[in-house]
Amino acid sequence: MKNKNTIYKNLIVFTIILVIWEFVFRIKIFSPIYLPGPYMVLKSFLEMIADGSLIVNIYMSLFRIGLGFILAFITALGLSLGYFLNAKVFSYLDGILNFLKNIPPLGLVPLLILWLGIGEGTKITMVFMASFFPLFLNMKKGFLGFDKELVEMALSFSYNKMDIFKKVILPQSLPDIYTGIRISLGYAYRSIIAAEMIAASSGLGYLLNFSRQMSRTDKVLVSLIVIGFLGLFTDYLLAKLSKIVLKGDLRNET
């Protein structure tokens, strides 16, 4: 029931935005060159679907996001497990990790272009850098923030370390890991659009920038709307998955 109410509320908001948009277009506050109407944007969307240009650019962006995110997830998991297994040794990395955490991924673009050129490596590295820290910090929090009393209880039942990790620590960590995944995917979408706008010949960011250069505001709006709905759909899938894996134990749910 809660989900249905949320969908209805979202539909009402989107409908209101469309009505206001159409009204502003019809009274011609702005030139159609700068603010095309919803129908013109829909027409451009259908044309870009028909000629395949939108599908290709969506695929390229999602491919880069997927690969960069997977690499970030594997690295974050390995490093957070290192902290869990031997926090004293891995604490030597705190300084460099805090240093890198404060460098915006977009600021690395000039250096990455010099090192890697404008190929796939630059875009995937951007996604990696944007995704890594939300994943790592939440995984670390989950693995190190376990309930010590439950661990002591498991030890009293002669559980070995692997059983304790699988049956006690990992289940407690899953909500934090889920939160990290959800946040990092949002950062991944933002970073890939920025990277593709600067150094790419394909992808939604490239399409957005190219449409701007051609003064095709309708295609700019198509790109922005598609980016927004892709992120919304990804978050929706994660929310559905969490209900299966976490059985409704969601943190930071919106």
From TrEMBL:
Boundaries of every ABC transmembrane type-1 domain copy: 54-238
Entry-linked PROSITE patterns: ABC_TM1
Pfam families: BPD_transp_1
Keywords on record: Cell membrane, Membrane, Transmembrane, Transmembrane helix, Transport
Compartments where found: Cell membrane
This protein's name: ABC transporter permease
Main location: membrane
UniProt topology in membrane: Multi-pass membrane protein
Family per similarity comment: Belongs to the binding-protein-dependent transport system permease family.
Transmembrane domains' residue ranges: 7-27, 67-86, 106-137, 187-208, 220-238
